[in-house]
Structure formats: C-alpha cells, structure tokens
C-alpha cells in the first residue's frame, strides 16, 4: 500500500514497483484515514507511508496502521527523514521497520528506485498467524536460574520499537545495568537516548570510555564504536572499541554480548531483537558457553527476522517471544537466587 498526499509521489512510487514481479501495489491512499479504511478489507505486507500529510500525520497514524495491518510492516518514505534524525528515530520508535528519505524534485529515478526495492525485499512479506515456524520445532535451552546481573539488548532494522517494548515491561528496579547496541548512525544516537529516557523513564547515557555501569541505568553503544567492558575490582567500566568484526557491523552486537558474557557469566542475559543479518550470533554463543541466558524476538513481532532467527536456529535461545513478553520473562530473573 502506498500512502502519500501527493498524487505525483503515489504515481511515481507505483511506477517504480511495476517492473518487479515479486511486488504488487494492492492499495493507494491519499491520507491516513483512507489508509486505515483500506486496511479493513485489504491484506498488505508493507505500507509505504509519508509523514507530512494534511490532517492526521503519518507519525500520528503509524501505531494504528500497524494494529490494523495485522502483521504488515511500515516503511516510512518522507522528505522529513532527510531533514534530521529526530523524525527518523520517532518513526522507528513507533514501530516503523525502516525509513527512506524522498529524493528532491525531479530526482525520483535512478538510485532511489534501486534503494526502495532493496529495502522492500529486505523487509519481506508480513508474518501471518500460522506462518511462523512453531516454537517447539526449534530447540530451546533451559535458562539460567541466577539473578540478573546485566541485561544486554542488541538490534538492527525494526529494533527501536522492540527495545522500548522490553524496557517498558521491566519493573522500575531490576538491580542491574542495561546495555544496548542498536545499528544507527552516530548522529541519531542522542535522539535515541532521549527517546528511551522519555518512553521508559530510565536514565540513559551514551557509552564513553571509563563510564562505570550502574544498576537501572541504560548505556547505549555510540554509532561509531563497539560497546566493550573492563572490570576493575567490583566496578565494571565501559571501553569503546573500533576493531573490525566478522559481521562488518559498527557497533556490533557480538562485541557487546561477548563482553557481557566474560564479566557477568551465568548472570548475563542477552536479547537479540529484530534486524537484518547475523550480528549477535557469535556473542550469543559466548553467553551460552559462559552459562548465561539468551532470549530472541519472535518472527511475528519482528520487522525483519534475521538476527533473531540466526540465534534461534543455532539452538542458543531459551525463549522466542514478543518484546513485552521478553520483558516480563526478564523481570522474573530479578528475583532469582544470587549469582555469586
């Protein structure tokens, strides 16, 4: 479905998709109310959504579009995404799978068309009820029974919404620091930090060398370095690392999970959330080797079930659930027996 108040934009987007046999435009809407009405009778995999529209904006309508879409993903295509990180982070936090800035007037062709098609194929078809592999078909590991010592969340495409979903489901006091690695450009990270703090009410800081981890505080990997850790006595300090890793990601979920495993062992809980690729697989393996616990997001709630799938299919996960349910499962660990 294409949702844009500009007839020209709607026509051009539809024309770009027409040559691709694996894609079909099944509905077109000129505003948010039209889109919501259309979703009542049309099954959609992906909604191309403009932000700046008269009346109800795309951002205002986004949560309801996701609810009525019954598994449909949203790719925000808007010039607002080219004007600053705030609009992008807001859209992703509300549940958009990805964002793509519109090209300038007269530049609708060329690379933009290729990028649009690539994004759509990466997002892929919606996960409908009954289409996901049953959880019992994947081997689940028994979780550690020790009290939570550190929570590490890793995500890429579609991850912002999942991260806030987990954090909102946690009790105010969990007695442990929270680490987050989300694939985002450096300029976006301050907006992401404020978004988490506002949505979840937790003190949130960007990682910097020597920062001491504190219970209840969220520490975000910067967009241009891995979040690593060092221990000095009873204190655990942040160390930033830019060493290239196998996944090619910077920051890398693997590095964060590996560091968490080394220091916290069986009290470590790592969560791999929505994202393209396999970043997090090797870090999850390290946590399991150190007797810690790994959870992953389920397919139906993921914008892209790539990173979680790799971990689940490797037999490393102890639960495969939507973010809010993962948050409740983690909350139960805050009252488990001590880890030392």
Automatic annotation (TrEMBL):
Database matches in Gene3D superfamilies: 3.40.50.2300, Methylesterase CheB, C-terminal domain
Active site residues according to the UniProt entry: 156, 183, 279
Residue stretches making up the CheB-type methylesterase domain: 151-337
EC number: 3.1.1.61
Domain Response regulatory residues, every copy: 1-117
Catalytic activity: [protein]-L-glutamate 5-O-methyl ester + H2O = L-glutamyl-[protein] + methanol + H(+)
GO cellular component, one term: cytoplasm
GO molecular function: phosphorelay response regulator activity; protein-glutamate methylesterase activity
Modified residues (4-aspartylphosphate): 50
Keyword hit for Magnesium: no
One annotated GO biological process: chemotaxis
Domain of life: Bacteria
UniProt entry keywords in alphabetical sequence: Chemotaxis, Hydrolase, Phosphoprotein
This protein's record includes keyword Phosphoprotein: yes
InterPro entries noted in UniProt: CheB-like (IPR008248), CheB_C (IPR035909), CheY-like_superfamily (IPR011006), Sig_transdc_resp-reg_Me-estase (IPR000673), Sig_transdc_resp-reg_receiver (IPR001789)
PANTHER family linked to this entry: PROTEIN-GLUTAMATE METHYLESTERASE/PROTEIN-GLUTAMINE GLUTAMINASE (PTHR42872), PROTEIN-GLUTAMATE METHYLESTERASE_PROTEIN-GLUTAMINE GLUTAMINASE 1 (PTHR42872:SF3)
Protein's name in the database: protein-glutamate methylesterase
């Amino acid at each position: 479905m294409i949702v844009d108040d500009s007839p020209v934009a709607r026509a051009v987007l539809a024309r770009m998709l027409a040559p691709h046999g694996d894609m079909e435009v099944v509905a077109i809407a000129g505003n948010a109310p039209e889109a919501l009405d259309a979703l009542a009778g049309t099954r959609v995999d992906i909604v191309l959504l403009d932000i700046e529209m008269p009346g109800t904006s795309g951002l205002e309508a986004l949560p309801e579009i996701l609810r009525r879409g019954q598994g449909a993903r949203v790719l925000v295509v808007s010039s607002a995404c080219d004007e600053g990180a705030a609009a992008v982070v807001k859209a992703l936090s509300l549940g958009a799978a990805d964002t793509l800035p519109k090209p300038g007037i007269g530049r609708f062709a060329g690379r933009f068309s290729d990028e649009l098609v690539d994004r759509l194929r990466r997002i892929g078809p919606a996960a409908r009820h009954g289409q996901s592999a049953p959880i019992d078909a994947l081997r689940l590991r028994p979780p550690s029974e020790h009290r939570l010592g550190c929570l590490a969340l890793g995500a890429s495409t579609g991850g912002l919404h999942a991260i806030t979903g987990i954090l909102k489901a946690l009790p105010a006091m969990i007695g442990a620091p929270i680490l987050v690695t989300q694939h985002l450009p450096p300029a976006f990270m301050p907006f992401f930090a404020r978004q988490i703090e506002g949505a979840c009410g937790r003190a949130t800081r960007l990682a910097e060398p020597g920062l001491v981890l504190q219970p209840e505080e969220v520490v975000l990997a910067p967009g241009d370095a891995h979040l690593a850790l060092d221990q000095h006595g009873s204190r655990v300090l942040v160390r930033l690392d830019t060493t290239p890793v196998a996944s090619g990601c910077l920051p890398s979920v693997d590095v964060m999970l590996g560091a968490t495993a080394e220091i916290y062992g069986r009290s470590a809980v790592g969560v791999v959330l929505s994202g393209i690729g396999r970043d997090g697989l090797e870090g999850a393996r390290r946590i399991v080797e150190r007797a810690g616990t790994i959870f992953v997001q389920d397919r139906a709630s993921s914008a892209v079930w790539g990173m979680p799938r790799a971990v689940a299919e490797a037999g490393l996960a102890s639960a495969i659930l939507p973010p809010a349910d993962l948050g409740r499962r983690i909350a139960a660990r805050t009252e488990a027996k001590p880890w030392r």
